[in-house]
């Protein structure tokens, strides 16, 4: 009888699993996510830019300032041992173009299990994480599992860990790096144990997963299950936009898309947002919101976003990032309006002296205010987003975040020209929370100077 009951239970479980596969993704429920991530503010640290020394110890010394700023999640670019092979055939085009003549690309790994001596020691990372935790900051590491370096420590002893052509030669993935072979059970186990290693032995809080969409989703799902057994509230950020990501494996995806990158067309932003939400699981359209990161900064060379956009446009965009649903994502140096060249491929530090100028101090105070506002207004962390129709749909981005009866309105002029806008559905008085060059004229009418904005609460 027990055997029959067990067989029936297994059959029912199999049928349920088959049924779930047939349910459209956007009718399934997303996994629950840790509040420290979804309610937080992410701050990306690119070690070669973050300090002149480029080390974990030097970065650790700056953590109190980040806590003062109000960010809550530190995402470290890869700090594992990079491949030092000088053969240019295995260098990425961007690596060659950079002019740094440095083989040690942090996205081309030689050893996934240790800290690169350029940044310090394994103990230095443990100390960094402990110091961050003492300041109530979480730490996420950047896992680069699509490829490796040509001299990766495991290739000789485990030739099946990398993809190979019919003649046995190593096949490169993108960027001219050897591709990892996810058909190899041994490779999968090696990388799952790597994820466990950093969680268990270094007490990190989660991972940002590089080029996540090009790696089988079931790999990430199993990896998540394993590290949750060690630390139940781990967080996972996918550098990708795969629609199924947030069913089991991930908590956030990247908020990519031309309309989000430029933030110049309110109508296009709304259309893209709606499409991305409608295609994904219920509660599974959570995105990191950013305008700058290590890739953008690297490819900008001397023409950084602060120079191209100017302070007013950048600050209006930051208001959008902090009031839109999802998680605001800052890149190191944004808090002082840094304009220095950054490079993934060599040391090129932030001009921290800019933080002592009037403009730098003003930016720090502004970002600090946005962080505090997000923390003070639960609607900005958890509230449902409702778009507001208005008579300037391209020039203005207007929406409300609502939670437990509280409503926060965000009306932002995305253009470099003044606008008068009439917004529907906002009757009644709004207590100002933050505004710049904006006049609330009542009955949903606003006057906004170029890149002006109005945030209010009802």
Uncertain regions spanning at least 5 consecutive residues: 1-16
Fill in the CATH topology of the largest domain. TIM Barrel
Q: What's the CATH architecture name of the largest domain?
A: Alpha-Beta Barrel
How many domains would you count in the coordinates? 2
CATH superfamily of the largest domain: Glycosidases
The helicity comes to 25-40%
Q: What does the overall shape look like?
A: globular
Strand order of the largest sheet: 1-2-5-6-7-8-9-10
Largest sheet properties: 8 strands, parallel, barrel
Helix count from the secondary structure assignment: 17
C-alpha end-to-end distance: 62 Å
Q: Strand pairing plus helix content: what structural class?
A: alpha/beta
């Amino acid at each position: 009888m027990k055997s029959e009951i067990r067989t029936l239970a297994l059959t029912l479980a199999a049928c349920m699993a088959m049924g779930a596969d047939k349910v459209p993704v956007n009718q399934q429920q997303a996994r629950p996510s840790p509040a420290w991530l979804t309610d937080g503010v992410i701050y990306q640290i690119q070690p070669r830019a973050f300090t002149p020394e480029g080390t974990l110890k030097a970065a650790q010394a700056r953590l109190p300032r980040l806590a003062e700023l109000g960010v809550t999640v530190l995402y470290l670019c890869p700090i594992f041992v990079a491949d030092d092979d000088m053969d240019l055939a295995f260098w990425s085009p961007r690596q060659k173009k950079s002019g740094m003549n440095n083989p040690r690309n942090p996205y081309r790994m030689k050893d996934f299990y240790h800290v690169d001596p350029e940044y310090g020691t394994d103990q230095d990372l443990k100390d960094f994480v402990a110091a961050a935790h003492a300041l109530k900051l979480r730490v996420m590491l950047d896992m680069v599992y699509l490829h490796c370096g040509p001299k990766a420590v495991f290739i000789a002893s485990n030739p099946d860990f990398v993809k190979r052509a019919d003649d046995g030669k190593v096949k490169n993935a993108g960027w001219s790096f050897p591709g990892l072979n996810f058909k190899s059970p041994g490779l999968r186990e090696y990388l799952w144990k790597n994820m466990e290693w950093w969680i268990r032995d270094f007490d990190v809080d989660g991972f940002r997963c590089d080029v996540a969409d090009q790696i089988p989703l079931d790999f990430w799902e199993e990896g998540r299950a394993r590290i949750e057994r060690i630390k139940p509230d781990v967080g996972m950020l996918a550098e990708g936009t795969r629609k199924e990501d947030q069913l089991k494996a991930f908590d956030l995806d990247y908020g990519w898309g031309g309309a989000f990158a430029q933030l110049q067309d309110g109508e296009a932003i709304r259309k893209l947002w709606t499409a991305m939400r409608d295609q994904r699981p219920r509660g599974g359209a959570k995105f990191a919101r950013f305008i700058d990161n290590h890739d953008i900064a690297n490819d900008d060379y001397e023409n950084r976003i602060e120079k191209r956009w100017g302070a007013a446009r950048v600050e209006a965009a930051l208001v959008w990032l902090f009031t839109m649903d999802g998680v605001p994502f800052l890149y190191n140096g944004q808090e002082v309006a840094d304009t220095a060249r950054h490079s993934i491929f060599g040391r090129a530090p932030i001009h921290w002296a800019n933080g002592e100028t009037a403009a730098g101090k003003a930016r720090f105070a502004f970002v600090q205010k946005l962080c505090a506002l997000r923390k003070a207004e639960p609607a900005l962390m958890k509230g449902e987003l409702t778009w507001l129709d208005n008579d300037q749909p391209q020039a203005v981005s207007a929406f409300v975040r609502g939670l437990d009866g509280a409503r926060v309105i965000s009306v932002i002029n995305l253009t470099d020209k003044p606008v008068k806008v009439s917004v529907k559905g906002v009757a009644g008085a709004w207590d100002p929370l933050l505004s710049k060059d904006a006049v609330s004229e009542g009955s949903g009418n606003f006057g906004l100077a170029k890149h002006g904005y109005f945030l209010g609460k009802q």
